[in-house]
Amino acid sequence: MRARGAVSAALASAGILLAGWQAGTQVAEIRSSAEATSAGTATGGTGTSGAGGSTSGSSGTSGAAGSAGAGSASATTYDGAAVATRFGSVQVQITVKAGVITEVTALQLTDEDRKSVQISNRAAPLLRSEVLAAQSAKVKSISGATVTSNAYLTSLQAAIDAANL
User: Lower CB count within 10 Å: N or C terminus of the chain?
Assistant: First the structure.
């Protein structure tokens, strides 16, 4: 009976580690694609960089990176402030095209412990879809993820302010 319990605990731990690893990989992929976009704009020379920023009262600064192509309306990205919580920092980025938020990307999510990672992985997609539908940060927080939701929406509002929406 003890062996069965030990195997179950080991499998549960492995599953949680895998979920945390996948969440970290997604954040790294998002960062690298954002950096590639910024690098492409800096070396391309055909666009103009968007700018804007805000400072969070608790940590970090934010700015905007993106490009507007010559002669065409292209998407511009704006980073929200990194908001510190007791479970880790939260930062989001929005993509705006023709005055419409077309994408919301979580650059950082709470990751203090396994539970924080689980909560963030559940809340982020729900918040993203709500924000895209509402086109603002005035959406309800996710039940059971209040701290993450509030930090997400605070960072989002900073990005919206940087975009002058």
Answer: N
CA–CA separation, 35 and 106 (whole Å): 14
* 114-134 vs 2-44: helix crossing angle, rounded to 10: 50
Among candidates 109, 140, 144, which has minimal Cα distance to 124? 109
- Report how far residue 37's alpha carbon sits from residue 65's, in angstroms, rounded to the nearest whole number: 8
DSSP state of 44: H
pLDDT of amino acid 162: 95
pTM: 0.58
On the 0-12 / 13-18 / 19+ scale of CB atoms within 10 A, 57 is exposed
Residue range 114-156, pLDDT digits in tens? 999 999 999 999 999 999 999 999 999 999 999 999 999 999 9
